[in-house]
Amino acid sequence: METIGIIHSPFKSIEDMPIQPKGAVGIEGTLHINEDYIEGLKDLDGFSHIYIIYLFHKANKTSLTVVPFMDTSERGVFATRSPLRPNHIGLSIVELIKIEESIITIRGVDVLDQTPLLDIKPYIANFDSVTQSSSGWMRANVDEISKKRSDDRFK
Amino acid sequence: METIGIIHSPFKSIEDMPIQPKGAVGIEGTLHINEDYIEGLKDLDGFSHIYIIYLFHKANKTSLTVVPFMDTSERGVFATRSPLRPNHIGLSIVELIKIEESIITIRGVDVLDQTPLLDIKPYIANFDSVTQSSSGWMRANVDEISKKRSDDRFK
To answer: Residue A131 contacts by C-beta under 8 Å, 6 or more apart in sequence?
Structure first.
């Protein structure tokens, strides 16, 4: 695995970070892509939304159960978006605003500043949208999570 | 990065594989999770859909531009789901059918048999659904892609 770029966001500390994109509505950030990979961005500007896959670089350990925000029970880490998963891989869907050379401006960024970027994939509604889904233990808490800020989820 | 399990699917060869989940509607597969990580699956069974993040283990090179299926133009690799991206990371949304100990049965699997699994994340509609999006160069071709099978996309 190699870093293809760096994510820049207004969130300089873990404490200030929203814990999901819906808590980062309207927040802009940029992806600074390594010069070597600019050619790979061709045609990406036609997509309104992209997946970004990145490393939770501040997560220094793995925990198979975690107590998520807005919850009081231990949940299996794969049933959460916690950074403390075995591979510290993060995934967010963000809005693509513009691409200028190696700089991609995005909106709805819920990622810590200086996060290493691993991949970008286009969001394609016909593949990626799920019309009916259920969200297990998360159900009751989703609205509150939007307002919540991160604190110790990396620790 | 370490493998947390292995994806089993009916697709034994690259040639027979659908190129997206929508081409794999109804196709069942299983995730065989390493015993060490079973604890992390707690509460996952409440979710109807999950993201699986995996390694395109048959992709042996990187190409910054690719000619996607159903297209005749070279596109930047980050504007496609091609395996030939700098980090050979794959992402699919699948339906979760059941979890029995270390075996997770899924539906809608568009992945090659024996693919190494890196992560599982719950699909949470309130975070992940995008109500309005546009899909750039992909627009005209999405329906046809559903019927298409893989051939040389790893090569």
So the answer is: none
Closest CA–CA distance from residue B10 to any residue of chain A (Å): 20
Which residue blocks in B61-130 are alpha helix, DSSP H? 125-128
Torsion sign, CA atoms B63, B67, B73, B75: negative
Distance from CA of B82 to the nearest CA of A (A): 9
How high is the ipTM of this complex?
0.89
Closest-CA residue to B86 (of B53, B118, B62, B66):
B62
The contacts of residue B12 (CB under 8 Å, 6+ apart) are B112, B113
- The whole model's pTM is what? 0.90
- pLDDT tens for A19-36 read 666 678 889 999 999 999
Contacting residues of A for B37, CB less than 8 Å apart: 64, 78, 86
Element (H, E) at A65: strand A65-66
In chain A, where the domains are located: 5-125
Q: Which fold has domain A5-125?
A: Elongation Factor Tu (Ef-tu); domain 3 (2.40.30)
